[in-house]
């Protein structure tokens, strides 16, 4: 006999009970959405599957992702005004050269037969020696040596002769500088060319660069055949200059001295050197915590030519950076004496012996020492008295430029009064005592200068019928001044492109100098060119200058 729960009737009953139990269970159990189950399909799959999910509750869309954060506002360049200032100036004097189709060849440099060329074997060198790799750390406000991962900029300036220039990240500022001052470069090259080809010259061709910055004036002078003496008090900029000198292969011609130029011997601090590799670095009487300090010397205390270029007691003759202890015990001792006398309030103009000082002709003197130009000019008194300087170009004004020469606590009006008085005294001495004529070169104050002359009835036409109506602005032209062969160099190429124009200029009448200086605040920045009046070669240089 079968057990009762093994019969078919009970088995069917259990199946029916299980079926109805499931119906009851799913009828009261809440159904999870595909979103909750994580099984939702894409719209394409849904459309391919027909409307098989129409009976499901709607799926709630996910929240859209948050929008990306707004880009950080660009950091404003704290020196934007300086950059705009440089761009405005460069727009005044920009020059476009035709593209080079071939690399320039070495020029057929002309030297009179009376000059003996020196041929010396080159010394072996350590390329990164002489503090060449020192640079300024703007974040830490300190000076240190370059690390292996750091890089330098090296570019070419179209200075004709073109030169390489090194920079610690501000090559564009150097280009702006050249665009702004290229007429001064042309004037310097013209002056050096005339003196280089002079058969009567028996001394080295010399250019002095007071306030060298990146050394571009010195590089161009060296590439043009001159011996250049550059003053640069900023440690990191001296390394930049040294780098450029080596690349341009003019180490035998250029010397860099670690001094600032002033009318005495002092130890001073510097400020502003963190801008564009120190582009506006200046002496500061009031900043005792500066990362850079320097010693000042007078221009008539430049080391002698022999000390700079031929003195060879433990120093290679091609060593570019020269420090006091490398100039011999007599010169170094005189510097220390000058510092001591200055602290005691004693006169220092006769501290440096003539026998160790530069007493050869200086054919071009450029002064740009960030406000201390008047003091620098006064410090060259022995050179002017001995008629050793032929041509001077200096950045000049406006009077607020000279405020840095005064210590704190002096009223602004009193500063300007003293500055203008010093300015008039120094220029009057240049004109009357030292025999210089003064000319004004293009700069930001150029239009105001021309307007000043016109307003005061200046007429340089001497009654001639000038077709353009111009009676004030002169143009200095390049010409074949000695009848000798062309040199086929880049300077001749520059003159061809510029229709032989070296620079525009306006003579400053001696009887109007004081009035011009009284209005210098409204006129603005100018460049002054002082030329030796009774020099035969000055007359050659300026022979083709006129309206």
Automatic annotation (TrEMBL):
<feature type="region of interest" description="Disordered">
    <location>
        <begin position="43"/>
        <end position="77"/>
    </location>
</feature>
<keyword id="KW-0812">Transmembrane</keyword>
<keyword id="KW-0472">Membrane</keyword>
<keyword id="KW-1133">Transmembrane helix</keyword>
<feature type="compositionally biased region" description="Polar residues">
    <location>
        <begin position="43"/>
        <end position="54"/>
    </location>
</feature>
<feature type="transmembrane region" description="Helical">
    <location>
        <begin position="9"/>
        <end position="28"/>
    </location>
</feature>
<feature type="domain" description="Methyltransferase FkbM">
    <location>
        <begin position="355"/>
        <end position="403"/>
    </location>
</feature>
<dbReference type="Pfam" id="PF05050">
    <property type="entry name" value="Methyltransf_21"/>
</dbReference>
<dbReference type="InterPro" id="IPR029063">
    <property type="entry name" value="SAM-dependent_MTases_sf"/>
</dbReference>
<protein>
    <recommendedName>
        <fullName>Methyltransferase FkbM domain-containing protein</fullName>
    </recommendedName>
</protein>
<dbReference type="InterPro" id="IPR052514">
    <property type="entry name" value="SAM-dependent_MTase"/>
</dbReference>
<dbReference type="InterPro" id="IPR006342">
    <property type="entry name" value="FkbM_mtfrase"/>
</dbReference>
């Amino acid at each position: 006999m079968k057990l009762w729960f093994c019969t078919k009737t009970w088995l069917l009953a259990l199946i029916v009970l299980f079926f109805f139990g499931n119906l009851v269970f799913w009828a009261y159990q809440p159904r999870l959405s595909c979103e909750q189950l994580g099984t939702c399909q894409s719209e394409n799959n849904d459309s391919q599957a027909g409307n098989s999910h129409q009976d499901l509750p709607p799926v709630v869309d996910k929240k859209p992702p948050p929008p990306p954060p707004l880009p950080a506002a660009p950091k404003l360049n704290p020196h934007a005004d300086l950059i705009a200032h440089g761009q405005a100036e460069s727009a005044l004097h920009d020059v476009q050269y035709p593209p080079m189709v071939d690399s320039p060849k070495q020029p057929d440099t002309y030297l009179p037969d009376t000059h003996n060329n020196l041929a010396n074997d080159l010394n072996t060198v350590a390329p990164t020696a002489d503090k060449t790799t020192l640079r300024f750390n703007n974040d830490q406000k300190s000076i240190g040596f370059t690390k292996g991962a750091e890089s330098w900029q090296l570019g070419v300036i179209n200075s004709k002769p073109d030169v390489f220039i090194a920079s610690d990240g501000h090559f564009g500022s150097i280009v702006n500088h050249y665009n702004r001052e290229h007429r001064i470069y042309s004037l310097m090259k013209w002056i050096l060319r005339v003196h280089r080809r002079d058969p009567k010259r028996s001394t080295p061709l010399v250019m002095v660069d007071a306030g060298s910055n990146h050394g571009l004036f010195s590089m161009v002078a060296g590439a043009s055949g001159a011996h250049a003496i550059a003053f640069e008090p900023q440690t990191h900029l001296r390394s930049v200059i040294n780098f450029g000198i080596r690349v341009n292969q003019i180490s035998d011609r250029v010397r860099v001295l670690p001094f600032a130029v002033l009318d005495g011997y002092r130890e001073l601090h510097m400020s502003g050197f963190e801008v564009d590799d120190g582009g506006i670095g200046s002496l500061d009487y009031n900043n005792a915590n500066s990362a850079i300090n320097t010693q000042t010397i007078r221009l008539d205390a430049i080391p002698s030519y022999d000390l700079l270029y031929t003195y060879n007691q433990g120093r290679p003759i091609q060593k570019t950076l020269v420090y006091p202890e490398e100039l011999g015990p007599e010169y170094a001792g005189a510097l220390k004496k000058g510092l001591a006398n200055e602290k005691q309030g004693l006169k220092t103009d006769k501290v440096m012996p003539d026998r160790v000082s530069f007493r050869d002709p200086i054919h071009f003197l450029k002064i740009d020492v960030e406000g201390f130009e008047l003091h620098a000019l006064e410090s060259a008194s022995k050179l002017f008295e001995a008629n050793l300087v032929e041509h001077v170009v200096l950045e000049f004004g406006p009077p607020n430029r000279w405020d840095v020469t005064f210590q704190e606590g002096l009223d602004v009006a009193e500063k300007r009064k003293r500055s203008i008085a010093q300015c008039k005294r120094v220029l009057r001495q240049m004109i009357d005592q030292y025999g210089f004529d003064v000319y004004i070169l293009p700069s930001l104050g150029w239009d105001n200068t021309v307007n000043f002359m016109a307003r005061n009835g200046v007429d340089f036409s001497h009654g001639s019928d000038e077709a353009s109506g111009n009676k004030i602005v002169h143009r200095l032209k390049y010409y074949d001044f000695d009848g000798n062969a062309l040199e086929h160099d880049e300077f001749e190429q520059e003159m061809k492109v510029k229709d032989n124009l070296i620079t525009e200029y306006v003579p400053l009448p001696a009887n109007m100098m004081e009035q011009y200086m009284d209005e210098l605040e409204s006129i603005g920045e100018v460049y002054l060119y002082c030329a030796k009046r009774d020099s035969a070669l000055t007359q050659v240089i300026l022979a083709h200058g006129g309206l």
